Each structure stands twice: as structure tokens, then as C-alpha cells.
Amino acid sequence: MLIPTHNHGPLLRLAATSALAQTVADLEVFIVLDGPDAATRAAAEEVARSDTRVRLFPNPKGERNGEAHRHVALQEARGRIVCYLSDDDLWFPDHVEYLDGLLADADLAHSLTVVAHPGGGFHLPYVGDLADPWYRRWLAGPHNFIPLAATGHTLAAYRSLAEGWSPAPPGVWTDLNMWRKFLARPDLRMVTGGRPTMLGFPSPARLSMDLAQRLSEMESWHARLQQPGAWEALRRQATDLLSLRAAELQRDGLAARAEFEAERDRLTESEAALAKAREELTRSWAEVTSLRAELDAVRTSITYRAGYRLASIPVIGRLGRWVGKALAGRPSR
Questions:
Q1: pLDDT tens-digit map of 59-103
Q2: Which of 118, 103, 110 is nearest to 149 (CA)?
Q3: How much is the average pLDDT of 183-207?
Q4: 302-311 and 230-299 are packed helices; what angle lies between their axes, rounded to 10 degrees?
Q5: N or C: which terminus of the chain has fewer CB atoms within 10 Å of its end residue's CB?
Q6: Is the backbone of residue 214 left (phi > 0), alpha (psi -120 to 50) or beta?
Q7: Predicted TM-score (pTM) above 0.70
Q8: What angle, rounded to 10 degrees, do the helices at 174-183 and 67-74 form?
Q9: CA angle, 194 as apex, 193 and 200 as ends, to 5°?
Q10: 194 and 321 within one domain
Q11: Domain limits at 321?
């Protein structure tokens, strides 16, 4: 289990506690410190003293989020799988057990995430399917539905990559940069689990909260979830939300399909009207063409050409104009 950390201090203690309380006891926990402040270092050392399964990897501040430090630590990993935990998230007690089962037939896997609201409540925002090629292509863009703390992979698959954890390019999320390295390998098997096994407290939604407020929030959740059956109750509620969301998606899909069919019918009617107008235009053009042919015939006739030539003679032309004026000025009887 690898927990990267930088400056979340006491939040790390709660996160690590959830890692050490897994139903799978045979594990090793690597806490990778990326230029930690004093509070974070103290929290990491306290966790390490409390359990021999914990190892610390202290480092100076690395580039970006210290991704390269994670790669160095994984060179010393001995387990079959690697799971990641953010230093401000909590695992359900069966998280590792669940991912271990998924990774029996896959190289990269992730479970579903329950995201806590700062003011209370929760939702499940990250939904996708790694087995679906469309979602794998979607991850090539600025999208990600795979949080770090919900993800695991086999150590063998990681070591088969051309490059492991490394600083992400500007504008690319650290985790997504790593997942894309797996996605670039079509021979690797990937799966999405349908069970919520991680409770997340994303930092972007908590920018207005100081560390003490964030700690109070996590402690409140942690205390509630220590009650008998609390984790399973949260999972059932989350699953119910998923069912409601699926129903909403189905409703929206049916509504979109009905709208599409209505638009298709309108388009069919417009095409029929356009075809009729095209036929009328074709008939009109045929009539114009016929009239033009008749006019050309008249213009090429001997009578027309003779009259045109006589009118062009000056004397006859003036005579014709004089006769016209005379007739126009003749008094009527």
C-alpha cells in the first residue's frame, strides 16, 4: 500500500489508520514523504511507530507532486498488488480485499468512490468502465474517473511498463498521467469494480477550509464509521444512489431518444417538402428552357432578321419613328 504525502499532517494519521485496519492483514504500507512539513513528518513517524508493517520513505520536495519518489519506493515492494491511498481519504475495511479479487484477472483495477460533501452528505461522481474501449479513449483527453485512492494494479504489470511514476507534463493530472501509461499497453487487462470501497475528501472542494477544519470533518466521518455495521450501511446508501442515478440516466436517455426520433420525423417531412419543391423547380426550368428555345427560333427566323436589318437602316428607321409619332398624335374620332 503506497501513501504519498506532502503537507496534510494529521490527516495522514487517519488515512493510514484505515489502511492498517484492512481485512487483509498481510500487507506493507509505504508512506512516501515528498518534502514534508514538520506536522506531516511527525504524523508519519507516529504511524510507523504504531505498526511494524509501515515503512517511511523520506525525500526532499520533488518535481510536481514527487511522482518520481513513488517509483523509487516501489522498487522495494514485495507484494503481488499495489494499492494507493491519498493522505486525506479513507478506505472501507475491505478495500484491499476487493481490489485483490479484481486483480486476480486484471492488471489494473479500481473500485467506486463515495465523495463526502464538505457540509455533510455524499455522492458518487466518478462513473466509468475501463473494460469499455470508449472510456479508455475518453481518458486520453482532459478527463479522469479513476481517483488514486480507488486504484490498484499488479506489481508485475507496473514493472513491465516502459516508464513508471514520473512528473506529469504541465496541465496533466498526476494520477491520469500514470493511468495513461497502462492504457497505452493494449495487452494489459483493465477492469472497473461496481462496489464502493473508498471515501474521498477532495481538496479542490475544501479550499476555504483550514487544516483543523478538514481534520474535524475527517474525524467526524471516521468516528461514525467505527460503529458496528456503519461501513456497510454507507455502502448500501451509496448503492441506492447509484440505482437512482441509473434510473435518471435511463430516463434522460429515453427522453433524448424520443427527441431524436421527433427531430428525425421533422427532417423526413422537410426532405419530402424539399423533394417536391425540387420537382416543381425542375418543371419550371423545363418551361423556361422551352420558351428560350422558341425565342431563339423566332430570333433566327427570316422575317425577324429582315425586320431587324430594315430598322437598322437610317432612313427607314427615321421614317418608322416619324410614322409612329404621327399616329400617336392623330386626333381620335
A1: 999 999 999 999 999 999 999 999 999 999 999 999 999 999 999
A2: 110
A3: 96
A4: 70
A5: C
A6: alpha
A7: yes
A8: 50
A9: 85
A10: no
A11: 301-329
